[in-house]
Automatic annotation (TrEMBL):
It is found in: Cell membrane. It comes from Haloferax gibbonsii. It is a multi-pass membrane protein. The chain crosses the membrane at residues 50-79, 99-121, 141-161, 173-193, 225-245, 344-367, 395-413, 425-445, 451-471. The keyword Transmembrane applies. This is Multidrug-efflux transporter. GO terms for molecular function: antiporter activity; xenobiotic transmembrane transporter activity. GO terms for cellular component: plasma membrane. GO terms for biological process: monoatomic ion transport.
Amino acid sequence: MSLPEGGSLTEGDLKRPMFELAWPIIVTELLQVAYNLADTVWLGRLSTDAVAAISLAFPLIFLLISVGGGFTVAGSTLVAQYTGAKSEGSAGTVAGQTLTFITVIAVVVGVIGFFATDAMLGVLPSSEATAGQVIPLAGDYMRVFFLGLPFLFGFFVFSALMRGYGNTRAPMVVMFISVVINIVIDPVFIFGFDANPLFSMLGLEGLQASLFTATGFDGFKVAGAAYATVLSRAVATIIGIYVIFGTSAGPDVQLADFRPQFEYIKKIVDIGVPSAIEQSATALGFITLTAMVVTFKPEVVAAFGLGNRLTSLVFLPALGLGRATNTIVGQNLGAQKPERAESAVWLAAKVGASVMLVTGVLAYVFAEPIVAFFLQTGTASAAQTIDLGVEYIRIRAFEFGFIGVLQVVLGAYRGAGNTKTALGFSLFALWLGRVPIVYLLSFQFGFAETGIWLGMAVGQILGAIAATAWFTRGTWKHSVVDADAAGT
């Protein structure tokens, strides 16, 4: 069984193995955000409309990819529980079944997304300026992204299966390679060899002029960011497949594990469907929020998108601890140690809350220089976007401590295979919290864009309180592989 270097997840002290498991997840998530931030940095140098375009595109993309994302949760949870029960063969079978299942989903979703791009963008109510300037750019980005969806799903599956097994360093290394590739090729695909800021930063204007003369390539603009992401993720997927099949770093997957086996498919579906619904409902919620945001001027849309990307960056410690908790709870419940699983959750919640409180303070204090870094100054539009983004970050900083607890508790529910409970509280935080509060504050009580920022924060706070209160009941302490483990 693969374990963190600091010790066993099911025996001995919890602190060091939890840290050894969590920190590569946090780094991997940081690198994941680096994809988005690289796009934002370079597109911010293209135009404010380009930043707004990916702000609109991402919730719509997330709506479709969330279907496959839910089933990666199932794969991670089952691999963790079978690994904890010392059923290596079953862990490998689950991995094979999950890879096959999600590959099929990726192809289907990619085709649907490509042909439905215009229809999805068409449902968003938008101001005249946004409809004319931003929507067409978002469409260019989305179509390329959907064509490359199997490559993106490939890495998601690899990362989830390795995480469930207890090996979080391999996905981190693979992600690092992919991000480096993305950062290098992103400005080339966006700007080509004409007015490319990368060449200016490196003092290579002469080389740029020669390349432009030879090729005439002036970039793909917004679509170039999507091309760069797809290509770099393709590299990550190829490496990930090699790690699973060509090394002993993860579950032992054999060719026979790809033949459909109803027993395992049923488990994947039972656990994965609520997670898929959860992620889809979350995506739909963000689309609803985006639909409200696009009724404002482009500067508000850009600030909303940039603010979300930055807050996703500062949430990384909480996300990492939540995913580590998923694995630890899964392995301990598989090993029939529910009390140890609960102790791990409370330890992670305390650490998460503390780290996120400190992060919130730093985000509040340094909001202005952070936001300004991602936009070119000197224009009225950019200055206004910066002011709005700073206000957004400072308001949301008050929710950070609650996010640390919420992500850990939701990770515990998922690690137990209790994805219906995780679904319930995610829906509560978003659909009974964020969405209606944003609407009431922004459109009914006259807070305008400030109401959006406030609603985003309050909804998550309410969700954290409710999920933690329910967790204390202890009804989640059941493995979904008890019968299987007994026979191994």
